[in-house]
């Protein structure tokens, strides 16, 4: 093991420092456990830059730790990694999600990888009636929005909706449960009434269906039947755009009256 590169040793050091097994790191980075084993034993001497970015993200490496890993990678492979370029890439992904949200006619929101609401368009603010809260600078999590005691009264079939969203959330965040920010979020969500009960009784079985229907009671527009449509942006950091399209003819008529549709569908 004396022949192990500095890069291999650092990957092992940072993983163990954060209390992760090789299998957990593999799951968080979407690599195989065998690949992680080969990285740490030096049998993989030329990993791609994307692999290194994924490891840095999964281990939440910042500042000097990230620079040390990147320098070791450059020494091993001869490839240079620009941390500033990485940060700009992450920002660009968020900007892309926000841009598409604000240029979508129907209600839409951008979610970050922890499902915090990253951006709203005017239609989604009106649909969920949260203008005053946003003006106060409140930060929303999509599960917090559904489990909030006041907001939940607006959803028909709330129990089924809550179960579906918790199950989807657990599936899509299963690779980042080791991160401190995930653990802090989970602790916060457990404070909502009914969350513990529902979270303990659902478990994701395979990839969930990409779309589902739910109903919301709007104080001015009445009852709307909505179907979700998800667009996922995958890079070093994940964002998604959640759009809400009409689920029945009555809701389609409301969308038309509100101008929540593209010109082509008019």
Folded structure, characterized:
This protein is an alpha+beta fold. The model has no long low-confidence stretch (mean pLDDT 87). It has helices spanning 6-17, 22-29, 33-41, 49-58, 63-77, 83-102, 122-128, 131-135, 142-147, 158-172, 180-189, 195-199, 249-258, and strands at residues 108-111, 117-120, 155-156, 213-218, 222-233, 239-246. The protein is built from 13 helices and six strands. A hairpin with a 5-residue loop joins β5 (222-233) and β6. It is elongated and about 70 Å long. It folds into two domains: 6-81, 434 Repressor (Amino-terminal Domain), CATH 1.10.260.40; 91-265, Beta-Lactamase (2-Layer Sandwich).
Summarize the structure.
With 266 residues, this protein is α+β, with helices and mostly antiparallel strands.
Provide the descriptors you would attach to this structure in a database record.
single chain, alpha+beta, 6 strands, 2 domains, Beta-Lactamase, 50% helix, 266 residues, 13 helices, 434 Repressor (Amino-terminal Domain)
- Mean pLDDT level: 87
The share of residues in extended strands comes to 5-15%
| Sheet with the most strands, sense and barrel status | 6 strands, antiparallel
- Relative helix content: 40-55%
How many distinct helices?
13
The Rg value, from CA coordinates, equals 22 Å
Molecular shape: elongated
- How are strands sequenced across the largest beta sheet? 2-1-6-5-4-3
The unreliable regions are none
Q: How many runs of DSSP E, i.e. beta strands?
A: 6
What is the highest CATH level, the class of the largest domain? Alpha Beta
CATH topology of the largest domain: Beta-Lactamase
Structural class: alpha+beta
**Total number of domains:** 2
CATH architecture of the largest domain: 2-Layer Sandwich
Amino- and carboxy-terminal Cα gap? 68 Å
Order of helices and strands: HHHHHHEEHHHEHHHEEEH
């Amino acid at each position: 093991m004396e022949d192990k590169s500095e890069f291999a040793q650092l990957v092992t050091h940072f993983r163990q420092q954060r209390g992760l097994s090789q299998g957990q790191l593999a799951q968080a980075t979407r690599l195989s456990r065998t690949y992680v084993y080969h990285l740490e034993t030096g049998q993989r001497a030329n990993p791609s830059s994307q692999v290194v970015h994924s490891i840095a993200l999964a281990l939440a490496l910042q500042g000097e730790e990230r620079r040390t890993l990147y320098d070791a990678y450059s020494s091993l492979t001869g490839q240079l990694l620009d941390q500033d370029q990485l940060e700009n890439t992450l920002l660009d992904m968020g900007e892309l999600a926000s841009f598409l949200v604000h240029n979508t006619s129907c209600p839409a929101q951008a979610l970050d990888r922890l499902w915090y609401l990253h951006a709203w368009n005017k239609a989604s603010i009106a649909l969920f009636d949260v203008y005053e809260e946003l003006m106060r600078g409140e930060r929303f999590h999509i599960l917090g929005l559904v489990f909030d005691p006041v907001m939940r009264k607006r959803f028909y079939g709330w129990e089924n909706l809550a179960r579906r969203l918790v199950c989807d959330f657990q599936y899509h965040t299963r690779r980042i449960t080791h991160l401190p920010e995930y653990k802090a979020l989970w602790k916060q969500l457990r404070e909502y009434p009914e969350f513990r009960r529902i979270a303990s009784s659902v478990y994701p079985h395979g990839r969930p269906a990409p779309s589902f229907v739910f109903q919301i009671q709007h104080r001015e527009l009445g009852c709307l039947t909505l179907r979700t449509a998800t667009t996922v942006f995958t890079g070093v950091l994940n964002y998604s755009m959640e759009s809400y399209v009409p689920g029945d003819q009555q809701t389609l008529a409301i969308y038309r009256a509100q101008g929540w549709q593209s010109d082509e569908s008019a």
